Amino acid sequence: MASSGSRSNNRRYKWALDFNYKSKQERSVDVPSPPGYNPALGQVYTETSKESDPNHLIIKKSWDLALGPLKQVSSFKMIEGSHSASQKFVYFLGNILSVGLALFKCQSMGLLPSHTSDWLAFVEPQIRMEYSGGGLLLT
Amino acid sequence: MSGHCVHVIRVISFLLLFKSSFCLYEDQIGKFDWRQRFIGKLKFSVLDSKSNVKKIFVATEENVVAALSMKTGELTWRQVLEKGPQGEIKFMHADSEVITVSGNGPFIVRGWNLANGYSHFEWNSFNDADEPHENVLWTYHHGKLYKVVMLDSQQVARIISYNVRSGGQLAAYTVNIPGFSRKCKAIGINLVCLSNNGELKGVTVVNSQFFNLDVSAETKGANCDLLSVDSSSDLPVLAIGCKQSKLLVAIKDNTFKALSETVPISAGVSVTQHVSGTHLIVLSKQIDGVIKVNGKVLETDQPVEDIQSSFQSSSPFSDIETSNSLCTLRRDRSVYCQILLSTVDHSIIFAQTSSKIMWTREEALANIISVELVDLPVSDIEAAIEKEFDNKEAPVDIGVPSGFVGMFLRRLTSQLLQLKSLLLTVVSLGESVEKNGLEVDLVRDEFGLHKLIVAVTSVGKLYGIDNLSGNVVWQKYLGEMETYKSIDKPVVSFYVQRTSRHLPYPAQCFILGKHKASDESMVYTFNPINGQPIGDGLHRLGYRAVQSLLLHFVDDQFLKGVLLLDSKGGLHVHPESQTALVSEHAKSIFFFTANSESGLLVGYTLAHSSLEKLVASEVWRIQLSHKITGLMSKSPLERVHSQGRVLGDRSVLYKYINPNLVAVMTQAEDPIHKNVLSIYLIDVVSGSIVFSIVHKRATEPIHLVHSENWIVYTYFSDKSRRTEIGALELYEGKTQSNTSAFSSVASFDSPIVERQAFILPAGIEAMKETITEKGITSKHILVGLNSGGILEIPWMFLDPRRPLGDIREEGVIPYMPELPLPAESIINYNQTLHRVRAIHTAPSGLESTCLVFIYGLDLFYTRVAPSKTFDVLKEDFDYLLITAVLVGLSVAAYATKRLAQRKALKQAWK
Amino acid sequence: MELYIVNFSMVLASFLSFVSSYEINEVIGAPDNYVIEGKVFPPEAVNDNSNWQAETTVLLKGGHQMGFIREDGSFVISNVPSGSYVVEVFNPNYMYEPVRVEINSKGKFRARRVNYIQTSQVIQVPYPLKMKPMSHARYFQVREQWRATDFLFNPMVLMMVLPLLLVMVLPRLMNDPETRKEMEQLNNLAKYDMPEMSEVITTFFATGDKQKQKSIKSAKKSKQGSSNN
Amino acid sequence: MFNSVMNREKCIFVTLFSYLFIIGFVQCSESDYDGPMSITLYHALNLDSEPHWESRGHMTVQNAASGYVTSHQSPLDVESTRRLKVLSDKDSFYRLKAVVKTSQGREVNFLTFVKACALVESQLKDYLTVSVDHEGSVVGVSQSTALSSCASAATEKLPSNFLTTVEFKPIEQGPVPDTASYIQKLEREREARERGETKDNRSFLAKYWMYIIPIVLFVVLSGASNPEGAGPAR
């Protein structure tokens, strides 16, 4: 988690650099660091400094929102401890319940294609096996 | 009273339903529709010289009395008399008013106003019990109408004179004409008879003076007939027509005077007054499609050079049957004549000598018997594109190299052409008004709404009519061919063998008729776009075909063959080259014939055919016990989109859609039940009677429509004295026995049949269902009413499942026995159509739209959209408004953006 | 053989020149033949030069027999044997109500209104027939005109206008101090709820030893308690 | 009398075993034709276009009115069975001719057919549908088999006897506009409305309480919750 976070930070840093016009830091990457200078520390620093930047916050918040449903899936894995089994079960049950409720509601509203009539439009016409013709005698 | 109220409310709600299904706005008059009015084949005509607005008074074979404008040939007024023998016009005379005698049995004498066709008087003349109805002659002289009844048994003619206006009988006497044959004519004031030994006898009806003439030897014994020529002038002339020629005889001062010259039988002869008591005889004949007119003075035999002229038009003329002329002397003492000609192909031609043809009327169109709407070929540009994708066609243009470069070049050229035409249309938008006068190119439009109506008439003349304008594009008279008869109606087999969608092959149509002179059948294969023959053109078959069938598959030239069953049971395919191909499909082809008189239906299979010879072997036989009066199979073009019907509980009731199902009607005159109408639904492949139903005391008119899984029929109920509509609907059940294929041979359980009957408060002349390309659009039924309107009834109204109680199913309206007749549903609004014979419906390229062509005495073309035009924007769509709204919204969005920016800035400064 | 009298006065009335020769004629008719007489009244709005007489036809038995209109609107249908018939008048532009005419074997006429549903119902109308136009035939739909009220009360427009009002009007209301207070209260309420939710979650996690259902109950209780405060 | 016949959907169901005289009771009670009527059956087992008719059996409708049918069908001999199998293998038609002889002595021929393979498949179990018109004369005889499919071509053994069910299908009575019940319905509706008009004189509240109560509740609750909710905020 942490490593991935730093990587993303790194990316974010580079990305943010372009827009925030922090040209000094940019140059400092190209120029060899003075002895005793740890670039990683500087990164951490810049990150914390950027936390206060409203633009950055907005983007982060948006990402959180966007990742919300995905996180929910992974949260299932995060259930730990002595009661994990029952917790997982309840979590599962809750989800099933909500899906079931949604289905029940849809069914009661007649939104589910559960009748033959719902598939009628897809019924292909029967293929004609014999052809016929003729009529009244022409005199 | 409040019951009535409910009724009214219901009716209103139905009207609303109707309204939603059909709508025509007043400004749409004539936009999609046109009407043409006809009168039929000429029988009597009088050229009126007295009134200031010159007219021609005519009476026709279609029982129509009318006045035509001499200038344009258009109808000034028209009165359509009773249908059939009831209204058959026996005599017409016009001077101060038009007098007609019509009917057969009691004769109806009617007087009509010359100027506007109002009725002046009407009275009846009854025959005595001993008088036959058929051999009655009429003539008019000085306010008196003479009725001459030929009493065959007594060898006398009974002459009764009436006051023409009141019908009061003035005198009655008999004259003895011993030895006369039935060949008699009343000409002027004379009754003239031709005896079998070639003797001409005449008697003046006014004073019974006799006179006779022994006509020349050549007419003696030969099969000659007495033809009246012209009795409008004071010099009545008659002709004795023999095989090839006719001898003209004038009656002057109670004597016959044979003219020296005989004229060809096909020449039109008319006599008019000339200067100083002489008479002009005008002869007109057709030679190589050109009408030649010449005349001479009857008394002196001196030819009149002035009136010698010849007329021709784009299509050749046929032989002349009758002619009527009116000659006048100009100030410079030259003579000119106006001639009204009627030809064997039922055209009426009006011409002026030494001038030109003033107008022609195609009266054969009053007797259309079969119609097809044919797709037009694509335009040159689109043809070029199609060529591009057609690999077989690649090496047509030698100049363009084939392969990658060639393809590219071809694409470029076709797209350039498209661009050019687009530019042209953009440019011509402004000046389209000028272009209207010119003929529109016959090319397919993008919605498939522009088609060609190919009509076959009872006289054997074919027409190609542009469906948008109603103009006759081409015409072709098949003189040698005559129509077949089936249940006393003229019929031909008319098929489209190839549509115009198969470039480079032209579209091809097929007509099966009879040869006039022999017993053989004749076939005419032609290009429906221009009427020109394809292949053999008009040719005799060498056998008499009794039934035909258009095959369902095409050969390598995209041509559908036609199977012909001859009178000896032999089977042929046209073209004959398809024999091997047909035998490949033989197992799936079934064929049936029905004998209307005996009620025998016979089914045949082709299964025993070999590659060389097609054999029809009998496999089933049904013997109905009464005369078959109608037989209706489904339209081969029909497609059914929905295979079932959703019920109230959301389950499906599957339709019983049997393409081989044929509805057969029989009518019996039962002594107890009177006029029993039976309808049999017969599977013509397996020969089983799927369902049958009987109605007692049901009489004509009977009409039937058969489509999808339902049958709608109408009859007049003698018991309740009203027109009733029966509706049958067939269902397979809640499950389909075979979901993928339908086979009639595989046995099945009888379908479930729903039935219901309704009352239509009107008489019915014709009935037809609408048809669309994919069958998604709901079906409507077009009903030709005797009021002259065409009523559009949604099928929903005739649904047999309409419940009497509560509504349980979707889209089902509660049952009401009487169907409403709202004026909004009359698709021809006030364009009254007389004697509607049939309604032809055809799908257009748009799923929503069905093209409708109604024929009878009048022609009417329109299009209907049963479920409204859901696939195109309404023609009153407001492009301006939507553009304005869009522009406005974008401007508003931009402006508010600026405003918001400014506000944000202000906020930041605070 | 039966004799009957046809009065042709109507015919002759239109021909003044022939009034002098006015006569009542005896027509020898086949037995059981009658003449139905009547008059069609023109629509009131008709102008003199319209040709309504020529356009109007009278049909008997659905066109089996016909009557034609004279200039004054009168008509006769001759050769009618005894029986029951529907007389219909058709004009392309006007609707006429049909009438049922019954002639008994003695030649008595009775005219009544047509009712196809209750065929035995008799509502008599005068004979000789007087056919008056019911209404002008409305074959066409009226095109919808654009009207401001229609536009404004269009649900779509309403749906657009209402939010607009809310957006535009609500901020103005906010300027009012009292309403602002109220709004703040509401906001606070919402804010109060927020920690409630988190509290539930914390209690849920904190009370590890307790049974979940209990913890939920307690969370509910605490929630209720907080709201009761 | 006639109507009762027509209203019956299926008239006669008699199962006939060949070589046995079985007299079945027939539901159909009345019909217009009386007196015995005989149906003689011939079948063609040849492959050619022209059928070669061989006798299959005959049945006598003693009196269709009373509904007794007697039948006699000869069993298929070995040769016939073989030929039928050939027909079946060639996917050809088994053709049947029914000669109906009425009590007046009038003879009418009817032809019908089934796929030979379907007949083999259904072990010679077939149905004969006799269609009858309103006067009681036979208009059509059509044969169908118990199984319509020809899925498995190879059938080991065929029974030698036909198992035939005869079904009489009378013509049905056409519908008539249902004016009587419509008028009744109108009458009922009118009465119902008249009653309804007098009855529905309840007060406004009595009629619409179900709409009013929720609204009132909502208003009360939202009004009450506000000060309470605001309390802790201060």
TrEMBL record, chain A:
<comment type="similarity">
    <text>Belongs to the EMC4 family.</text>
</comment>
<keyword id="KW-1133">Transmembrane helix</keyword>
<keyword id="KW-0256">Endoplasmic reticulum</keyword>
<dbReference type="Pfam" id="PF06417">
    <property type="entry name" value="EMC4"/>
</dbReference>
<protein>
    <recommendedName>
        <fullName>ER membrane protein complex subunit 4</fullName>
    </recommendedName>
</protein>
<dbReference type="InterPro" id="IPR009445">
    <property type="entry name" value="TMEM85/Emc4"/>
</dbReference>
<comment type="subunit">
    <text>Component of the ER membrane protein complex (EMC).</text>
</comment>
<dbReference type="GO" id="GO:0005789">
    <property type="term" value="C:endoplasmic reticulum membrane"/>
</dbReference>
<keyword id="KW-0472">Membrane</keyword>
<keyword id="KW-0812">Transmembrane</keyword>
TrEMBL record, chain B:
<keyword id="KW-0812">Transmembrane</keyword>
<keyword id="KW-0325">Glycoprotein</keyword>
<dbReference type="InterPro" id="IPR011047">
    <property type="entry name" value="Quinoprotein_ADH-like_sf"/>
</dbReference>
<dbReference type="Pfam" id="PF07774">
    <property type="entry name" value="EMC1_C"/>
</dbReference>
<protein>
    <recommendedName>
        <fullName>ER membrane protein complex subunit 1</fullName>
    </recommendedName>
</protein>
<dbReference type="GO" id="GO:0034975">
    <property type="term" value="P:protein folding in endoplasmic reticulum"/>
</dbReference>
<feature type="domain" description="EMC1 first beta-propeller">
    <location>
        <begin position="135"/>
        <end position="363"/>
    </location>
</feature>
<dbReference type="GO" id="GO:0072546">
    <property type="term" value="C:EMC complex"/>
</dbReference>
<keyword id="KW-0256">Endoplasmic reticulum</keyword>
<keyword id="KW-1133">Transmembrane helix</keyword>
<feature type="transmembrane region" description="Helical">
    <location>
        <begin position="877"/>
        <end position="896"/>
    </location>
</feature>
<feature type="domain" description="ER membrane protein complex subunit 1 C-terminal">
    <location>
        <begin position="707"/>
        <end position="909"/>
    </location>
</feature>
UniProtKB/TrEMBL annotation, chain C:
<keyword id="KW-1133">Transmembrane helix</keyword>
<feature type="signal peptide">
    <location>
        <begin position="1"/>
        <end position="21"/>
    </location>
</feature>
<dbReference type="InterPro" id="IPR039163">
    <property type="entry name" value="EMC7"/>
</dbReference>
<dbReference type="Pfam" id="PF09430">
    <property type="entry name" value="EMC7_beta-sandw"/>
</dbReference>
<dbReference type="GO" id="GO:0030246">
    <property type="term" value="F:carbohydrate binding"/>
</dbReference>
<feature type="region of interest" description="Disordered">
    <location>
        <begin position="208"/>
        <end position="229"/>
    </location>
</feature>
<feature type="compositionally biased region" description="Basic residues">
    <location>
        <begin position="213"/>
        <end position="223"/>
    </location>
</feature>
<keyword id="KW-0732">Signal</keyword>
<dbReference type="InterPro" id="IPR013784">
    <property type="entry name" value="Carb-bd-like_fold"/>
</dbReference>
<dbReference type="GO" id="GO:0072546">
    <property type="term" value="C:EMC complex"/>
</dbReference>
<feature type="transmembrane region" description="Helical">
    <location>
        <begin position="151"/>
        <end position="173"/>
    </location>
</feature>
<keyword id="KW-0812">Transmembrane</keyword>
From TrEMBL, chain D:
<comment type="similarity">
    <text>Belongs to the EMC10 family.</text>
</comment>
<keyword id="KW-1133">Transmembrane helix</keyword>
<feature type="transmembrane region" description="Helical">
    <location>
        <begin position="208"/>
        <end position="225"/>
    </location>
</feature>
<dbReference type="Pfam" id="PF21203">
    <property type="entry name" value="ECM10"/>
</dbReference>
<keyword id="KW-0256">Endoplasmic reticulum</keyword>
<feature type="signal peptide">
    <location>
        <begin position="1"/>
        <end position="28"/>
    </location>
</feature>
<keyword id="KW-0812">Transmembrane</keyword>
<dbReference type="GO" id="GO:0072546">
    <property type="term" value="C:EMC complex"/>
</dbReference>
<protein>
    <recommendedName>
        <fullName>ER membrane protein complex subunit 10</fullName>
    </recommendedName>
</protein>
<keyword id="KW-0732">Signal</keyword>
<keyword id="KW-0472">Membrane</keyword>
